[in-house]
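Model it.
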Amino acid sequence: REGKNHKRGSPRASPSTNWSSRNIHLCLSPLPPLSLSLCFSLFFTELVKKREADFQKMQPLDSFNAHGKFSLANQAHVERQRKRRIIIISVSSVILVTMVVAVAVGVGVSVSLHNATGIPQPSDGTTETSRAITAICQGTAYKQTCIDSLSSSASGYDTTDPKELVKLSFKVTIDHIRKAFSQSDLLKEAAKDVRAEHALESCKELMDYAVDDLKRSLNHIDTIHSGHDVDDLVNSIKIWLSGAMTYQETCLDGFENTTGDIGDRMKKLLKTANELTSNTLSIVSQISSVLNSFDFSLFRRRRLMTAKPVVGNDGFPTWVTAGKRKLLAVPTSKIVPNVVVAKDGSGDYTTINDALMVVPILQNETFVIYVKAGVYDEIVRIASNQTHVMLLGDGPTKTKITGNRNFIDGIPTFKSATF
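Modeled.
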């Protein structure tokens, strides 16, 4: 209690007291949430140590009676007081530190949401939804577009289910493509040349394909469960989404060499749709990690996304069904076609397009069209809803399909292909 620079009887500040007085101001200054909680934790730890040290200093004095003799009763009484004080201080410290951590976490979430969206987030029932949306949009190329579109569409109901948010991303993208699709009718009125009109027609068709691929992907999101191979399904969805992006880009390519501002106007209409499609592809690409961050148990039985498809002994990938394997393994001469196309009239139809007219829509069974030897001067188009169609010929030098469309004649490149 005495020192060179202290008067007799004046207490010297203990190290813990110096730490407390020096750092309590630091704890009260602006700090990151985790640093704030750590600061207060250290403060109360030092406080407990100080109280214990002060009490231990008092113990030898209290352990002797007035005659200077050691008293067991006094020692027991001091020990009980010591334990009681330790318990009270410890419990109080734990409760207060817990409260500080809880506040720090709340502040941290609020700060992160503010930084992510640029605006403070409300602290009502929509906070959890906003937090989930921010998390699922983290890896997207157009983060703000992702957050804004999902937040506006998610208003009115609360959900933190990543699966529902992924589905919502698909729905928002489809809505924006349909919006551009409907407005393209207005743009057609402003078209001043033939190429622009053809480009608009191609865009309608291409956006229809894009919507179909998005719908197909959306429908398969609901089929994800522990009984399916998640990786194969996610890869299929990524392929369909990539196709949707390609359709939109091909749409804009058709406006090259056109007059007026029709191409720029269509580009503006598709800007948000392109960004949303790209974002949805990014979300699906990281779907396993995102859903696992929410402890989505359905994705625990997953393989590495980089795993290569397994090829069976017959040379076909494992995703090829048994029926398709059998059909592909059979020699073409032994396959029984559904219809026959012959140029000389010896078959069911004389043109391939006529045969395609009888193909069932969205069928699950393979529809085989046998095209006999001959030169078929036609542009063959198989619609996207004509599924599982197989064409057989008599060989590359005998069965030929040809056309005479090209860009020079004013035909868009997208529609100039023969098949």
